[in-house]
């Protein structure tokens, strides 16, 4: 998980993302005007609601105040998710999240929106395209959604 800055004509906004490390699929996100822990929890809530399996899960993030907050840690604990954090503020220790931030900013969020509403629409569309249509070399030129669906099918077969 990570938070990145995005801009509109109204100013700076904050995009919180939760990504599945195996498939690179963005599982949850929240765009807001503030960098509050409760906004980051909304991205986690979306992720939890999108889960299709209930197995052991590790949540990795940097040591931002939002991820260290009680409200966030309680949400992880309530859902049986094990927290993992970087040693400090070294971006290389959260490289996957930083890479996805870069892809979204450099390939999709190129248009400077007028306001937060317009930016929300662009973010939603960008994440849909990223998950459904953008192949990754590291995924054998498959999309994150293709790899995610395949991993879910394999887990279901293993449990049956």
Helices and strands, with pairings:
Blueprint: E1 2-8, E2 11-19, E3 26-32, H1 37-50, E4 57-61, H2 65-68, H3 70-78, E5 81-85, H4 95-108, H5 116-132, H6 144-159
Parallel strand pairs: 4-5
Antiparallel strand pairs: 1-2, 2-3
Tell me about this structure.
With 160 residues, the chain is of the alpha+beta class. The protein has one domain: 2-Layer Sandwich (Nucleotidyltransferase, domain 5). Helix content is 46%, strand content 21%. It has helices spanning 37-50, 65-68, 70-78, 95-108, 116-132, 144-159, and strands at residues 2-8, 11-19, 26-32, 57-61, 81-85. The strands form two sheets. A three-stranded antiparallel sheet has the order 1-2-3. α1 (37-50) runs parallel beside α3 (70-78). It is globular, with a radius of gyration of 16 Å.
């Amino acid at each position: 998980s990570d938070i990145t800055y995005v801009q509109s004509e109204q100013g700076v906004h904050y995009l919180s993302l939760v990504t599945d490390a195996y498939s690179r699929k963005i599982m949850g996100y929240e765009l807001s005007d503030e960098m509050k822990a409760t906004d980051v929890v909304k991205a986690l809530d979306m992720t939890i609601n999108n889960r299709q399996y209930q197995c052991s899960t590790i949540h990795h993030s940097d040591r931002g105040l939002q991820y260290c907050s009680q409200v966030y840690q309680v949400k992880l604990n309530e859902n049986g998710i094990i927290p993992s954090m970087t040693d400090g503020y070294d971006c290389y220790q959260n490289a996957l999240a930083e890479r996805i931030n870069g892809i979204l900013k450099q390939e999709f969020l190129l248009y400077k929106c007028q306001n937060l509403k317009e930016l929300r629409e662009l973010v939603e569309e960008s994440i849909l395209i990223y998950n459904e249509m953008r192949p990754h070399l590291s995924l054998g030129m498959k999309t994150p959604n293709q790899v995610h669906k395949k991993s879910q099918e394999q887990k279901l077969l293993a449990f049956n």
